[in-house]
Amino acid sequence: MNLIYVADPMCSWCYGFGVTLDALLTAPGDAAPLQLAIVMGGLRPFTKEPLDPARADEIAGHWRHVAEATGRPFADGPQSALRAPGFVYDTEPASRAVVTVRHLAPRLTWRYLEAVQHAFYAGARDVTQADVLADVAENLGLQRADFARAFASEPMRAATLRDFTQTHEWGIRGFPALLAEHDDHLHLVTHGHVPIDTLRERLAGVATAHGPA
């Protein structure tokens, strides 16, 4: 079964859902072998204004909910990336970085997405910055110069926009979302975080379904 994961590296519930999805990919249970394609949804691309303190407080509250629900680590308080002076919550660069790795080293795409998320949420690193994104790529064994060159290129910018457009055409407005290809149809498996048992049950239902969900 082919799965399509629509996510954003700077979406906290996507970070939380990674626990579930990682468990599924590691031990799919009774499901057929799974192939995962990762598509960038575009949570807040091309944001220009710095995050104001009230909005940062609101987002930090969402992060605490994710931490409680999933056990994922978050840097909190003054250490949070949200509190960095002048921080702009633009998710396009991190999304483009994932698309770049998908182009350069497809088998590392999932690991890179998770590494960017961990750097942002747990490590309080500003993953809107090209050098930080290159650090993460280099830590996974990619050549820094190759990554930086591709990341800055127009083809990667265009490919990222195509991801955002495809997500919009699928009618997906929030993340995470997981789709499954079965019998030449796309099935929406989940729109939002669900536990692993629920996810496996839904995939089993897709495997026995006929026609679009």
TrEMBL record:
GO terms of molecular function: oxidoreductase activity
Coiled-coil stretches noted in the UniProt entry, renumbered to this chain: none
Residues in DSBA-like thioredoxin domain copies: 6-204
Cited CDD domains: DsbA_FrnE_like
One Pfam family from the record: DSBA
PANTHER family associated with the record: DSBA FAMILY PROTEIN, GLUTATHIONE S-TRANSFERASE KAPPA
Protein name: DsbA family protein
Species: Piscinibacter koreensis
